[in-house]
Amino acid sequence: MQIRRRERAFFTSRLLFIAALIGVMSLVLLARILYLQVQAHERYVLQSDRNTLAVLPLAPVRGKILDRQGRVLADNRLEYVLTLTPDSVADIGETIAALRTVLPISDEDYRAFLRNRRGTHAYQAVVLRRNLNATELARFALVKGSFPGVQIETHWQRVYPYGPSFAHVVGYVGRPDSRDLEQDPTLARSGLDQVGKSGLEAQYEDLLRGVSGVQEVEVNARGQSVGSFEERPARAGTDLHTTLDLDLQTAAAAAMAGHSGAVVAVDPRNGAVLAAYSAPSYDPNDFVKGLDGAQWQSLRDDPLHPLNNRFAAGNYPPGSTIKPFVALVALRDGAIQPEETLAGGGYFQIPGTQHRYYDWRPGGHGRQDLRAAIRDSNDVFFYQLALRLGPTRLAQGLEDLGFGNSTAIDLPGEARGLVPSPAWMRTRRGQSHWHTGQTVMMGIGQGYLLATPLQLVRATAAIAADGQLPDLHLRADRPIRTRTVEASPRHMQLVEEAMRAVVQHGTAHILASDPHDIAGKTGTAQVRRAERDAVGRVRKGSDSRHLRDHALFIAYAPASHPQIAVAVIVEHGGHGGSAAAPVAQAVIDRYLDRDSTAQP
Amino acid sequence: MNLHSFSLRRALGHLDPALMTGIFLLMGISLAVLYSGSQESIRVVLAQLLRFAIGLVVLVGVANIPPERLRAWAPFLYGLGLVLLAVTLVAGRTYLGAKRWLGVGPLSFQPSELVKLALPLMLAYYYSQAENVQSWKAALSGFALISVPFLLIAKEPDLGTAAQIGAAGIFTMWLAGVRRRWFIGLILLAVISGPILWHFLHGYQKERILTFLDPQRDPLGAGYHIIQSMIAIGSGGVFGKGWFNGTQVNLDFLPEAQTDFVFAGFAEEFGLVGVLFLMATYLLIVLRGLIIAYECRDRFGRLIAGTLSLTFFLYIFINMGMTTGILPVVGVPLPLVSYGGTAMLTFLIGLGILMSVHSHPRFHE
Question: What domains can you pick out in chain A, each with its CATH number?
Fold first, then answer.
C-alpha cells in the first residue's frame, strides 16, 4: 500500500509536469495568435484585400486627328490580338511552342511578350501576337479549347491613313516606355498600350488620350473573376481638329518627292498651319506596330535622317530669303531711305580691310535702290545695309520678326534658330570680339544666322499681313494671337512690291506666268563652309551632293489679299529660284485653285 | 454482454458529460466552418455529419469496453499494426511519392492510424506489468517498442506521423516513470544528431523545413500555404470577418481550407474571440483527460488516459502551430474539426478509451 501511494505521488508529479508543459505550449500558441490577429492585423487585412481585389483598367478610345475639313488623319482600327494569361497556363514555353504550329509567332513577338509581361500580375493577360487576320482567327478558333489561358482580345490600334505624308506633323503613337511611365506613373495602371510619341500625338496627348475607366473585380486564387464590384467606364479621348489641309499636305509631299528638305504653308491672316512636311519621311504606321531591330536601324542610320523634323527642328542659314526682312529693319531704323541708291560692284570690302565679300553675280548689279536690290538679290547692297545697321540693331530687328524665337507652334521639339549679336557672342560663346565681317554676312543670311522653316514662313506671313506677326498653330480652336511689327505701311508696301518683282522679273521669274500673283524671295544658302547638315551635325565625306547649296524660297499669294504664305527649303537643291520656287508654286496653286473652284 | 442485459441507458452511462460537451462543441464548430468554407454545400456538411454519427456510435462502443479487455488486446493490436505497416511498405498504394495507404478493394486505410492508438496501449500494457520501471531494461524495452513502428512509418516516408507516434510513446514512458536521465539523453541525442540527420532527409522534407524558416523564399510555391494561412488568421482580427465572409477561404486563396488548414478559415471568420472559444473547448477536453488520469487508480488506465490526453493536445498544438507559422507544415488535422474520416475516428476512439477508463468502477476510486 505504501509502495502504491508512493508510486501514485510520483505519477502525479509527472502528470503535473505534463500539465505545465501543456500550459506553456498553450501560451505560446496564444501569443502567436495575438500577434497575428491584433498586432499585425492591419498588415494582413491589406494583404487579404490585395489578394482578392483586382482593379482592371479599361482603356479609352483615343481621339482622332482631323484636318480642317474633318478628314481623318489619325484613326483607330479594331485589331484582334492573341493574349496569354501566365497564371492560367501550366508551361508558357510549351504553350507558345504549341501555338506556333497553329499561328505564326515570331521571335520578335515573343520578345515583346516578355517585355510586356514585366510589371504585370500573373492573372493579367499579356499580348502575344498582334494583328490577327481572318484566317488566323479562324485557325485559332478551331483549337481554342486546348489552349486554356490563351485568348483573342480586341484592341484599338492607331492608323495613319496617309502614312508618310503627315508623319512629322501628326506624329505617331507607340508603346509607353520607361520615360513615359516616369512622367506619368498612372500610365502603368491605365490599360493603355499606346501613347503619343511625337508631333501632335505627343503635343495633345492629354486631350487625345481620354480617361481610363476601371473595373473592380473580385478574383479568386486563380485570378478568375468571380464578381464585379464597380465599373467606371472609360471616357473616350477628344478629337483634335487641326488647321491642316489634306490636299495641300499631299501636294507638298508630292512636290518634295526625291528631295530632302521642308515645306510649310500657313494662313497669314491667323497663323493657322495649312501644311507642314519634312522630306524624306517615314511611315508612322510602322511605329504603331513596333519597329523591329532592322527597321529601326535602317531609319536611324539613313544618311538623310528621315526621322528629323526639318520644318520645326531644322536650323538652316536663311540665305537671301532674309533680305526682305533686313530691308524692313533698315527702313524702320532709318538706315536707308526708300529711294536711296547704293553703289554695287562685284564685291564689297569693309573700309580699311582687304577681304572681299563677293556678290553672287560676277561683276555685281551696279547702283540700285532697295526695291531693285531685293528683286535681284543684290548681295553687295545688303552687305552695306547690314554694316549701316550694325549687328545689335540688325539682330534686334530680326528678333522682332520672330527670328531666334519660338513660333509658338503647338508641336514638341521646335528649334529656335539663331540670331547672332555681340551680346550673344559674349554670353554664349565667351568671346568679347565681334568681327565686323559677321555683320556683313548676316545681311545676306549667312554666317551664324540660322532660321527654321517655321520662323521663315511666320516672318513671311507678317509681311503678307501688313505687319501682323501671327503665332503659328495647328489646333483649329486655338485662340489667334498676332503681334504687330513696328513698321510704317509705306515701308511694308515697298518690301511687298519688291517681293512681287522677284517673281515678275527677278530671281524667281520662272513663276512669272503663275496666275496667282505670287510675291516671294529666293535664297541660296552656302553649306560648303559650314559643312554641317540640317541639324548642325558635321558631314563626313565629300559627296558632291552634300556640297551643293541649300535652295530656299519664301512666298505668299495672292499678293493683293494674301491667303497663304509658304516657306520651302530643298537641301542641296542649288539655286532657290530653280529648285525651291516650283515646290512653293505647287502648294500655292493647289490651295488657291481649290479655293476658286470651291467658291466660284 | 448478452442481448437481454443490453440497455441503451447503461451504454450511454459510460459517457463523460464534460468530454461529451467538448466533443459536441467541436462538432458544431466543424460543421459551421465547413458549411461556410465549402460555399455553403449541404453535401459536405451531411458527409461530415454522417462521419460524426458513425464516430459517436464507435465512441459509445469503445467507452463500454472495460479497460482490462483493452489491456489484454494491446499486444495483439500492436502486432497487427506492425504487420500492416510491413505489408504497406511492400504492397501499399503509392500516392504523391509515399506508400502510406493500404488498399482493400475500394477502401483504403492508413495502418499508421491504428498504430497511433496501438503503440500507447502496448506501452501502457508493458509498463503496467513491468517489475521495475526504473531499470534500464524497462527503458530500453520501451524504446524498442517505439522504434519498430517509428522506423516502419519513417520509411514510407511519413516523417511527420512517425514523429507524432514517437512522441506519444515517449509520453507514455514519461508517465510510467522511466528515469529522467533517459529523456535528457534523448533530447541531447536529438540536438546533436539533427545536423547529421539533415543529410538523410528527402528533398521535399528539407524544403518544408527551409520554407518554415522563411516562407518568403518561395511565396508562390512551398511558402504559399503558410503565407496565405497567416493572412487568413491575421486579417480575421479580434472579431473576425463573420460567418461566410472569409475571403481567403471562400475565394480559394487558402489551400486545404477544409482539412489541415481549417483553423485558418475558422480564425478568419470568427477572429480572436472564436479562437479563444475553440482553445478553451480543447483545453476542457485535455484537462478533463488529465483529471481522469489523475483519478485513475490503475497503472494501465492512468498511463493510457494521460498519454491520450497529451497526444490529443499535441495534435492541436502542431496543427495550430503550423497554420500560424511557428511550426513546419506537416499533415496534421485539427482534431474533430477538420474534414475527413480516418483521423476523426482515431480521435473519437481515443476519447472513448478515456471515458472507458473513467467509467469502469474497478479502475476508479
Answer: 55-241 (3.90.1310.10), 246-598 (3.40.710.10)
The CA distance from B104 to A63, in Å, is: 71
Interval B49-65: pLDDT, tens: 999 999 999 999 999 99
Burial class (CB in 10 A: 0-12, 13-18, 19+), A182: exposed
Query: Which has the closest alpha carbon to A88: A144, A4, A169, A150?
Result: A150
Mean pLDDT to the nearest integer, B237-247? 81
pLDDT of residue A222: 54
Contact A44 B234 (CB under 8 A): yes
Choose the catalytic residue: A320, A432, A542, A544: A320
Instruction: Give yes or no for a contact between A25 and B313, defined as CB atoms under 8 angstroms apart.
Output: yes
Is residue A106 among the annotated active site residues? Answer: no
A218 and B174 within 8 Å at the Cβ level: the answer is: no
ipTM score assigned to the predicted complex = 0.89
Residue A525's pLDDT band (cuts 50, 70, 90): confident
- Residue B235: which of A17, A45, A226 has the nearest Cβ? A45
* C-alpha grid cell, residue A232: 467606371
Q: Across the interface, do B272 and A38 touch by the CB < 8 Å criterion?
A: yes
Contact status of A31 with chain B (Cβ, < 8 Å): no
Are the CB atoms for A378 and A359 separated by under 8 Å?
Answer: yes
Mutate to test the interface with A, among B228, B235, B273, B307 (most CBs of A within 10 A): B235
What is the rounded distance in angstroms from the CA atom of residue A469 to the CA atom of residue A459? 7
Which of A26, A33, A43 shows the shortest C-beta gap to B324?
A33
pLDDT band at B364 (very low <50, low <70, confident <90, very high): very low
Which residue has 509681311 as its cell numbers? Answer: A463
